[in-house]
Amino acid sequence: MTIVIDCTYTPQDYVGAQYLHLRPRPWLYYFVAGFVAFLIALLIAAFYLGSSPSDRPRPHATTPVSTATLAWVAGGIMYLIAFFLIYLPWRARRLFGQYKALHTPFQFIFTDEGMNAESANGRSTQPWDHILKWRENRHLFLLYPNDAMFHMIPKRCIADEEKVAALRALLDTHVKRMG
After folding, report:
1. Residue 54 in 3-state DSSP?
2. Phi and psi (nearest 5°) for 58?
3. Taking a C-beta distance cutoff of 8 angstroms, is the pair 47, 66 a contact?
4. I need a surface site. Which of 67, 134, 146, 155 has the fewest CB within 10 A?
5. d(CA 38, CA 76)
6. DSSP label at residue 84
7. Both 34 and 10 in a single domain?
8. pLDDT tens figures, 7-31
9. Are residues 114 and 82 in the same domain?
10. pLDDT tens digits for 29-47?
């Protein structure tokens, strides 16, 4: 089976690819949940250890230890919000603007042998054993030749859902899917 995809990337494709690339693996969700539970336990312990026994029935009373802990937790949350909602999209759009090769139309051709990519800037052929893994979301496929680099295929460039399903099946047949 041959699947041909013609497309031109947009800055939003690149931003979406960065978010998908950074999406945690399933095991990381458990780690983060455990870490959040640890922070909550630390906050509660700091609150109760910093107060005298007579103050413990009043949970709204704060101490220097619990205030500092709360400030660190709030600061960390604000950092993550700023990173993911402001810095990451800004940086991805900036990099997209600098990387002129992403602005030209391209064509991907997927076959049982591998993936071919072609644009006005050049041509590349990669057999399936050169692609380490892949992942997808509602908007994109990402194909990884290594852990840090990826090829992005926007689903908006694929004509219909049957072609999306065919590409997914082809990738499942030849490449390991990431969680």
Report:
1. helix
2. -100, 90
3. yes
4. 146
5. 14
6. I
7. no
8. 999 999 999 999 999 887 767 677 7
9. no
10. 777 778 878 877 777 776 6
Q: What is the phi/psi pair of residue 136, to 5°?
A: -150, 165
Instruction: List the CATH number of the domain containing 173.
Output: 2.30.29
pTM: predicted TM-score of the whole model, two decimal places: 0.75
Q: Which domain holds residue 64?
A: 25-87
Q: What is the distance between the alpha carbons of residues 1 and 41, in angstroms, rounded to a whole number? A: 55
Distance CA 7, CA 151 (A): 13
Confidence of residue 82 (pLDDT cuts 50, 70, 90): very high
Give the length of the chain: 179
Phi/psi at 151 (nearest 5 deg)? -105, 135
115's tokens: 């993936």
Q: Are residues 80 and 118 in the same domain?
A: no
Please tell me whether residues 71 and 107 are part of one structural domain. Answer: no
- Count of helix runs (H) and strand runs (E) in the chain: 5, 8
Tell whether the model's pLDDT for residue 55 goes beyond 80.
Answer: no
52 half-sphere exposure, CB direction, 13 A CA radius: 2
d(CA 16, CA 154): 9
What is the sign of the dihedral through the CA atoms of 54, 57, 63 and 65?
Answer: positive
